[in-house]
Every structure is written in C-alpha cells, then in structure tokens.
Design goal:
Blueprint (H helix, E strand, L loop, with lengths): L11 E5 L4 H11 L4 E8 L6 H16 L1 H6 E8 L1 H5 L26 H16 L3 E3 L15 H15 L4 E3 L7 H23 L11 E2 L2 E2 L5 H17 L1
Parallel strand pairs: 1-2, 1-4, 2-3, 4-5
Antiparallel strand pairs: 6-7
Length: about 240
C-alpha cells in the first residue's frame, strides 16, 4: 500500500460516490489525503440505480478495512435530480439498446450530467464548509464523454470559483489512468482487501445486472462499462503476475 503522510488537520473533502469502481477508488484516494471525507451520490433516474444500493455496503467495507478510514469517513449524502432523466433520451435513463449516435457519441452520454453533479456538489460543499471536491472523471479510458475531459473540469472549477467566491478545487485522481491503472491504484491504496471489496460490492454495469459474478465483479459482461472494467482487470492481473 502507498505510505501517506498524515492528512491535513481539519481539512475535509466531498467525494462524488456513485457506488462504482472509479468512485470507490477515489474514495480511498481521498481517505489517504484528508482528515475527513464525506460522500455524495445522485439519484437521477438512472437505469442502473442499483449502484445507489451498493454504496452502503462499500462504506461498511471501507470502515472494516482500516480503523483510520473508519474514523475519517463522515456523512453520506444523496441528492435526487429527476429532471436530468426527464430531459434526457439516453441509454442510461431509458430502456433502449446501447449504440453509437449520429454525433459520434455513445447514447449512454447524459448531456450535462457531470456539470450538474459538480455544480450540486459545490452547492452542498459550500453549505458544509468544504472546498475540496473529488470526482472519478477520466479522459484516458472514457467513453467519449466531453464532460469527462480535463479541460472541461478545469473550466468548471474556474466557473465555480467565480460564481461562489470560494476557492473550490476539483480533484480528478483518475483523469490520466487506464482502467488497469485504476485497479493498481486501488491495490496500492488498500491492498488486496480493497480490490476484493471493489470486485464484490461496487457496481459498473449500465444495465444494472447483478446476477453473474465475473472475476472483476458483477455485471452483464457485454455493455461498454462491463467491457472496459473487464479489460482493465485482465491487464491489471497480467501485469501483477
């Protein structure tokens, strides 16, 4: 595991915590760097809303893994944003086949989702006196989503700072990592115990499938999210061996 210095005294972070692999890894990253960590999930009418039910099991697992993590874990929040689903015609908010759109983007792209998430996160963080927000956006192994790009996140950070007069900092520790590197980061942060926890209790599958248990976790095994997670797992295991 990575040996970290003591977290900044009194400093708190808010982690966007969906219940997926990436957000679970980001949570471990934040727990190593901040004295207190709160989590935030969003119920926006997503097809794979089962991810929301995975969060409590993951949080319990984090507390069981390490006593210092248990001490640093703070409040868990959920915000409901049904409007996002109501105005979206996507495969993440409708029971339709996943495919590429005529604009070159997969129809799993929910326009404005990360912009909305981070804006709501900043509003909550403002009220709770938190200035550091952590998200699992990734430009290296992403699905073509423009709101996952580093340039987008940096621009939004600047907007949030201007719009709130608060020095918010948006942290994206996975931005330049492949999925294999994300698995490795989880191992570096929490050892085999964290990797096992993510495999067993996180959820990535776009279809919300929890039936089949693969080496990398539960999912349909066919959707883009499952395929990317499985590919990363294979590469991670091959390099670890």
């Amino acid at each position: 595991m990575i040996e970290m210095s003591d977290p900044p005294q009194g400093k708190t972070a808010l982690v966007l915590f969906s219940g997926g692999q990436d957000s679970a890894t980001c949570l471990a990253w934040a727990l190593e760097r901040f004295a207190r960590v709160e989590t935030l999930g969003f119920d926006y009418g997503q097809r794979h809303a089962i991810e929301l039910t995975c969060r409590d099991r993951l949080l319990d697992g984090f507390r069981d893994l390490r006593a210092d993590w248990a001490q640093r874990l703070g409040d868990s929040h959920t915000l409901t944003i049904p409007t996002l689903s109501e105005i979206s015609e996507t495969a993440l908010t409708r029971d339709v086949a996943i495919e590429m759109g005529t604009d070159g983007l997969p129809n799993t792209f929910v326009p404005g989702r990360n912009l909305v998430f981070l804006t709501f996160a900043a509003a909550l963080a403002y009220r709770r006196g938190i200035l550091d927000i952590v998200g699992g956006m990734c430009e290296t192994d992403y699905s073509g989503y423009p709101d996952c790009r580093d340039e987008t996140i940096r621009a939004l950070q600047r907007t949030l700072v201007l719009g709130t007069a608060k020095p918010f900092e948006l942290h994206t520790p996975l931005m330049w990592l492949s999925k294999a590197a994300t698995w490795r980061l989880a191992h570096d942060l929490g050892g085999a115990g964290l990797v096992d926890l993510i495999c067993e209790h996180s959820h990535t599958c776009y279809l919300g499938e929890r039936g089949a248990r693969h080496h990398w976790g539960f999912g349909c095994g066919e959707c883009p999210a499952c395929s990317l997670r499985a590919k990363g797992w294979r590469e991670y295991v091959a390099r670890a061996g």
